[in-house]
Amino acid sequence: MTPALDPDGREPVALPPAWPARPWIYGNVIMSANGIVTWTRAGADDDPVRAVAGGDFRRPGRRADVRLMRRLRAAADAVSFGAQTLRDQPDLIGGVEDAGGDLGAELVRRRAAQGRPRIPLQVIYSESGRLDLRVPLFTTPGLTPIVVTTAAGARRLGGATVVIAGDERVGPSDLARAHERLFADFGVRHLACEGGAVILEALHRAGILDEIFVTVTDVHVDPAAHAGVKRIAPLDGGGARLIAEGRAADDPGYRFQRWRFNEAPSG
Fold first, then answer.
1. pLDDT of 233 above 80
2. Mean pLDDT computed over 38-64
3. Shortest CA distance to 37 belongs to which of 235, 252, 215?
């Protein structure tokens, strides 16, 4: 019997220990009933997350999804995003305070008791280095943004904190070495990657996406209605193992699953 995953809980999610030389990396994604996570936006009002969530961010299942996401962030030393995710959501910061109710304050207190900063390190993947350094992620006092990029991208980024992965392109081995740098130089033992789909697939190809938390809604998305439709890596039958699942207490149309690609290290 598959263990229960409680999206309405309050504790940070228990995670395996880090690997000897790199973080334990876990993804988090919301997905339609037919497996679609995103597409190329047709405009500012074309929000894939809102559509996949059923068009209503007040829905109980979506609120449970946000609370689970904040608990996953609270368990992390770093939260990471791809460059396109940051372009689509320029005000994005991977914090925990906006969890809803008093959960955010509780997670902040718990991180402080552990000697951890209020907001985890922020990691952005950008092969080109073409990022807007005026967005809040780079200008908010107290944040530590780190850009995983190429040597060419680092030149474009000027004085930003960077981890260089490759000269012009970032291949799977480059990506793996970059996370070893995050481990060794920045103390990242647990990293929560919130996508998008491109970076999650890149981490999976590199063999370093250890597990993924998937929120499955009851919304069916017509793939023919959108350009650039993307799905996550195959799960059932694709080398992943379902280790926990559950439903939102007030919204059974939302299912929450935890899939593991790599067996946990001992320690």
1. no
2. 90
3. 215
